Amino acid sequence: MVSDYTLLSGSRLDYEPLLNMIGNAKIVLIGEASHGTHEFYRERSRITRELIDSNGFSAVAVEADWPDAYRVNRYVRGFGNDRNADESLRDFKRFPSWMWRNTDVVSFVDWLRARNASQRFEQMKVGFYGLDLYSLRASMEAVVNYLETVDPQAAAEARHRYSCFDIFESEGQRYGHGVMLNVAAPCENEVIEQLNELRDRQEKILSRDGWLAADEFFYAERNAQLVLNAERYYRTMYRGHISSWNLRDTHMVETLVALKSHLQQDGAESRMVVWAHNSHVGDARATEMSHRGEINVGQLARELWPGEVFIIGFTTHHGRVTAASEWGAPAERKRVRPSLPGSYEDAFHSMQEHSMIIPTRSPANDSLADARLERAIGVIYRPETERTSHWFHSNIREQFDAVIHIDSTSALRPLERNSMWDLGEPPETYPSGL
After folding, report:
1. Domain region containing 41
2. Is the pTM of this model over 0.90?
């Protein structure tokens, strides 16, 4: 199946072949086959540390909401009032909080804070940013709060425009549903007006000197753009999965483009690491997604920056995962069933190696071009409908530039565990013990 691969032993030297493959790439997308696997987070962090230390990467952009991640960004840069990494992650309250409030992310944030503290200049520090668009209300609040500090009259105007959403509770699902049923008028004009107004005031606001002033404006401007895109997302989510998926991934890439430009404003070259699920970073053109008209971050990034993007995916054969049984349900420590016969994961398992890096484009690995099944577990895992819920066909060679296969994996440890997680799923032999 595969002739060219590198074994992982836990040494820093393990990743030298991968770093050589990455070369001068400016955007490295690192995936995960589930949102709840410890080894995926651990190895992704190891790769990112090497890219920062050895290749000069200046930003980590993750599949998380912009305002929640920006609190972490302030902490790792030495700003704000948070006393430790745990506190800096406390805005991650929305389901699934364990994606970011877990022990692996705490370890990485601690490392990034210490690394940044050793840098003399602000521009040499590495930031932590969110790409997602679910934070409709938090982003509206962030825009108003920012304007309160620089232009109270503008803040009052922003508050008035955003009051259009006040008849709806919680986040945007109810707003989108209400607009679809024609029980409420859309707020599109108000959010467009607010974004344009903020941009019109940019020169006046940035008349204050300093890097921090420009960064704070950028944070507010991206929040205003997020409100606009989130408003559109929640209106489209009731029209069909494809349109809302495409809008979400397009927003992520728009945020990457804006972030890249912002970080290059002093003339320095910007290199970014992206953390997201395999389904977002693996090129959609190499999977069933393309047949449904779906695009994703990996495809758009390759089209925007040809020759500058390197994509890494993760796979596993079996183990444990932190996931819920349905949306909004508590996190559970579930058993990941063995991979299906004939799948990529099954083929990698047959090599009888625990952990390995596989360069998918290597001529020695031509057989990877054959379409096979591949597994994807998000924040929900339904083993009772394993085939239909979690498997799809792909050409993994075109989907990723490299794959890291870890044969047996363990569950991510949430910072807030419950009795269901601590108990874990009973073994297959329960209750007979056979």
Report:
1. 1-57+271-434
2. yes
